[in-house]
Write a structure and sequence with these properties.
4 helices, elongated, mainly alpha
Length: 91
């Protein structure tokens, strides 16, 4: 996701994109458990086409994402260093 956004959003620096991606995954992990709860009004129906029985995705996540965020930070630093070198060489 981070690498794809770096290609798509060229007007932002890699560190800005890294912060946005990390913020997205933090809030995703905080709120993921809310997606697998069926509301009482919907659950009271006799017929339910999607009752979440077959949704086997994890719904509790660690909000720190230490390894993933460290990898994103490392790639962002490498990309910014590469951009600085190319800017210096083009001058």
């Amino acid at each position: 996701m981070f690498r794809k956004l770096c290609v798509v959003r060229k007007h932002l620096t890699p560190s800005e994109i890294a912060e946005k991606v990390k913020r997205f995954f933090y809030y995703y992990s905080v709120n993921r458990h809310k997606m697998c709860i069926i509301t009482p009004a919907y659950h009271a129906e006799a017929y339910s086409p999607d009752d979440n029985r077959f949704d086997l995705r994890q719904f509790l996540y660690n909000t720190k994402w230490t390894r993933q965020f460290a990898a994103i930070d490392k790639i962002a630093k490498e990309m910014e260093a590469e951009q600085n070198v190319t800017m210096i060489n083009t001058k």
